[in-house]
Amino acid sequence: MTRILIAIDGSAPSLRALEFGASLAAKLGVGVVLLHAMPQVMLPVGGGGPGALSELQHSLRAEGTHLLESLADKAKSLGATVETELGVGDPAIVVYDRAEAPDIQMVVMGSRGQGAVARLLLGSVATQVVHTSSKPVVVVR
User: Fold this and answer.
1) Which of 36, 104, 107, 116 could form a disulfide with 137, with the two C-beta atoms 3.0–4.6 Å apart?
2) Which residues 6+ apart lie within 8 Å of 67 measured at CB?
3) Contact between residue 26 and residue 43 where contact means Cβ atoms under 8 Å apart
4) Which CATH number applies to 3-140?
């Protein structure tokens, strides 16, 4: 079954991407995969030890799971069949890796509309995915 990958981070542009991607999937009769990438957590030396790291990881995972569950309900209300995935690591790499799977037909993601200088200095997840993915990528503003 082919699906549309929708990368979400909870921002307004990613919510617009969710609406666009889920509506398109419903019209095409394909499913969607909602993907949220949570950061790889590292504490500085002397930053609280393994207990603090475990607690932070647990908190981030719970927040990501909650976000995915609430947005899955929204996508279902738009008529899409939904699967959710929580990735860990650099968002551009997490999205790229999942996008390259054979079941993904296209990627839909939001753009935060950074200025040229910020995009040059910081990069953009959407820009990185557009330039590296072999699949079509729709960037929603």
Assistant:
1) 107
2) 8, 10, 36
3) no
4) 3.40.50.620
